[in-house]
Amino acid sequence: MRLLIRMNRMHFNKLKLAQSRLLCLEHRAILSASHRRRRQSAGLKTSACPPPSPVLSVLSCSAFTSGLSSLRGRTVAHTPVAFASSSAASTPAESAKSQTDAESQRIPTTVPLDDVKRILDLAHPERWRLAAGVGFLTVSSAVTMSAPFFLGRVIDTIYASGADTETMTASLTSLCLMLTGVFLCGGAANAARVYLMQASGQQIVRNLRATVFSAVLRQEVGFFDKNRTGELINRLSSDTSVVGHSITDNLSDGLRAVAQAVAGVSMMFYVSPSLASFVLMIVPPIAVLAIIYGRYLRSISKRTQDALAQATQLAEERIGNIRTVRAFGKELSEVDKYTQKTDYVLSLARKEAVIRAGFFGVTGLSGNLMILSVLYKGGLLTASQHMTVGELSSFLMYTFWVGISIAGLSSFYSELMKGFGAGARLWELLDRKPEFPLNEGRILSPDHLKGQLEFSNVSFSYPTRKDAPIFQNLNLLVPAGTIMAVVGPSGSGKSSLVSLLLRLYDPDAGTITIDGHDIRDLNPYWLRNHIGTVSQEPVLFSCSIRENIAYGAIDPDAVTIQDIHSAARVANAYDFIQSFPKGFDTVVGEKGVLLSGEELGQQQDGLRATALDAENEFLVQEALESLMEGRTVMIIAHRLSTIKNADSVAVLDQQRVAECGQPTELLENRQGLFRKLMEKQAFLQEEQQRALL
Ligand SMILES: Nc1ncnc2c1ncn2[C@@H]1O[C@H](COP(=O)(O)OP(=O)(O)OP(=O)(O)O)[C@@H](O)[C@H]1O
Fold first, then answer.
1. CA–CA distance from 643 to each of 217, 482, 652 (Å)?
2. pLDDT digit string (tens) for 167-210?
3. Rounded Cα distance, 152 and 392, in Å
4. Ligand 1, atom 4, residue with closest C-alpha
5. Which contiguous run of DSSP H or E holds residue 597?
6. Least C-beta-crowded within 10 Å: which of 139, 512, 548, 555?
7. Which ligand 1 atom minimizes the distance to the CA of 221?
8. How far apart are the first and last CA of the chain?
9. What are the ABC transporter domain coordinates in residue numbering (predicted)?
10. How far is the CA of 593 from the centre of ligand 1 (A)?
């Protein structure tokens, strides 16, 4: 099984090589084009293009060493999976509480005026659609609020004393026809309002999502170490829609609730001032009670949601990393952990159910009592000829509307505050300036790019672990056009060295130069485009192999199928890809798992896999060698077979370069670290061979 995994990694690497090769080819095209332009402007003929400038290649060949690590035991498996639970050992209740506290801190309790302007700015492009929506809202609200009055008139027409049946029928028919027309207009206006508000809401959310995604991708890599992916995705998907909803649908519902509450109360006073005064004496205490109760209910239901989110996060992480869970045989303990979390959700949900039951019971009861009191007092007024039956009916309907509007106002306010809270998180992200620019800085002329790399007195620690230095005063020189192998024990900082070179992070002190130019002065986008990387953890996106190969190109749309085939050939991956039924159109799943599945299906037994493994290793090695020609190369590797072609080897240890020199020279030093590393590897390889036999 381990051998198969290792071979899959080989194949992934082949695809990455194809991507990398294409990247290099693209550069040549671009560099040649820009060179041609310069020559043209200098009055020179374009046919005499210069040879391509050397392109740096960084090759991380840990796939070669996966066999090595597999023998060290399960705990050192290369799978870079760390579950969140290991970071902070807290009980579900504690963590849910801290999450709830953090969340409640985020939801403001008063309207933050600064944010109002930003929200209005967001809505600005949609102002005409929103204005039309508000216009239709006014029409539909006017119709809704006039309905009880006219319906009262209908009732009075029915009960009118002294009118003969014919007259009554005529006035009833004309009144009902007129009202049908008015209601039709109201319905149409309401539909138009809902459509316009939703359409502009979706447009605002779409714009916001695109801006937030672009702001996220612009951030430096250190930012992603500090911010969890789930949190960022949540901002992108949920916070954007909360903001969009709060300024469109919610705003329109809120405006409607305000208009209806004001109109309703006014109409109640218009219809019967004495009954209105009586009812409005009862409403405030009930409303206060309902608000307090509602707040408590919201807080408990938020805690339930938070606890549920924690359980879901655990499930998502474990399902997403099912291979690791399975490999460690942790299914049952993961089920236990999930059950604990869901038990906590259940206990909160039960509490919520009790409170909710009480809340709905009390509000339902108070609503009914209010209606009953209106009927009682109204009945007395009707009996004493101070009110007609139609007026009492209108009044009753207005009471309903006012009640509904008050409930709508309270939810409008809480949704609005949620919108401000979500907005604040988004502004924070949108306003954040990346620590270093993405596409600004010097671009070196291709003619002068030789590719000499130098690390001078480099000290570095990761932004999230400032107390754990990775390098201290590290010095390393890689002459242009040479191959440097970087070796060292696991965790000695080999990958970190590459990250610094790619300018994923900046050193805390010291400089890294290319041909004497500090990489901090260079355009990072340009820099990365001149460094081909074959990474330790090959990443494939869930699309076709063809699209995966084209991913490395500057303009993937301009890449022809011939380019893709030739890149695959250079990476020795062509035959392997063509062996799939759909060839280059084979869709690889998330992290390339579908490819693994097909491949596994093709493998019959371990021995055959071993043979293929060696063959693939040879092919990958061969492809690498052809790619390395004429370039400055840093190889991160342990295997002697990979290192033997290197011009020099740098051994990392104790936060610095402990040894540096030609491989043969270093091997001669019996006490040297390199020699010890190689001996250990040879020993492990022998063990591996024996285990296979
Ligand atoms: N993004 C990060 N944030 C914090 N610490 C990190 C980060 N990446 C790596 N480290 C830590 O930095 C140290 C050096 O890691 P690095 O991956 O560079 O070592 P390596 O020599 O390439 O290891 P290996 O041979 O196992 O791949 C390790 O202790 C690692 O845990």
1. 36, 13, 15
2. 778 888 888 898 899 999 999 999 999 899 889 888 988 998 99
3. 8
4. 462
5. helix 593-602
6. 555
7. 1
8. 15
9. 453-679
10. 25
